[in-house]
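Example record for the data management plan.
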Amino acid sequence: MQANLWQMLVAQLVGTISYSATHSVATKEKVRVRVHHYQLADKGVEFVCEPANHGYQVMTAQRSGVKCGDRIAFHTPSGHQEYRVADIEYYCDPPDMWIAKLWPYS
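Corresponding structural encoding:
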């Protein structure tokens, strides 16, 4: 299932964002986590996601508001995969385009 998901190097983004709450272990505070949902669609913004060494994925997309610690959820006809944004860098032009390192979310 995961191999089929990552064979799609270019797909379309459907712009949905949801929120969930998690607790910070050190401070026992509630921390707001954004979940960005990506799925195949006819209209939307393109994104590229490729497997890298050591089990993580590298994703490039154009959408503002994605930050370290957020989650990326991929929805395809073959299944659902969720990843945590471990590192992200925004490009200068366009300012909402970024590249990120994603680790499987567990």
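Summary line stored alongside the record: DSSP finds one helix and eight strands in the chain.
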